[in-house]
Amino acid sequence: MEPFLKGTKVNLRRVHRADAISIQKYANDPEVTRFLFTPYPYTLEHAYEFIKISHRMHRKKSGFPFGIEHKETREIIGLIGLYRVDTLHKNAEVGFWLGRDFWGQGITKEAVRLILKYAFEEIGFYRILARVMHPNKVSLYLLESLGFKCEGTMRKAIFKDGRWLDFIWFAMLKEEFLEFG
Ligand SMILES: CC(C)(COP(=O)(O)OP(=O)(O)OC[C@H]1O[C@@H](n2cnc3c(N)ncnc32)[C@H](O)[C@@H]1OP(=O)(O)O)[C@@H](O)C(=O)NCCC(=O)NCCS
Prior knowledge:
Elements: E1 4-6, E2 10-13, H1 20-27, H2 30-33, H3 44-60, E3 64-70, E4 76-86, E5 91-98, H4 107-123, E6 127-133, H5 137-145, E7 149-160, E8 163-173, H6 174-180
Parallel strand pairs: 5-6
Antiparallel strand pairs: 1-2, 2-3, 3-4, 4-5, 6-8, 7-8
Helix pairs in contact: 1-3
This protein binds coenzyme A.
């Protein structure tokens, strides 16, 4: 059965072809893609490609991408996932974005909590990495408020929109998640 992670504001579920229009609508926003590797403009073709890759990842267990589903409308309003899976060392990286209309309501915080619980308790990962491009202050704050620890900065590691940006690494260990709640 496909995983379905139930929250109070949103659920996390796998995305399907029918979700491409919503994904494209919310991802095609320069404020959303500003600190992501996601391309801008973000076309419907990009969304279809993402959906195809996400099915392949789930099948091979090489990644666990989920749509963030609004509880009332059932629309996909953002994406979150576990990527760069290292099975040997039980490591993965979390990545996420949310449509701008929904910012500031605690939705991503809930989505990250849901996926961490799934990562540590269901899949059995031990360490979850999160990398943030400077100065993505909201993400820094969000990760710290969830108990992620900053592990250092890769100076000017990313060339984005004509500028070199620092890449800040955060991680959470299983015992920290269990402790932090
Ligand atoms: C980063 C992002 C996912 C945050 O989503 P969100 O749903 O608005 O975040 P939340 O509402 O869960 O807020 C998380 C925390 O940040 C705070 N916060 C949210 N927006 C903020 C803002 N503009 N300024 C300061 N703090 C802010 C919230 O108060 C909350 O903290 P709290 O629980 O202590 O109150 C969203 O802004 C986004 O999609 N940005 C573009 C993509 C991106 O940068 N992804 C992350 C890459 S690492």
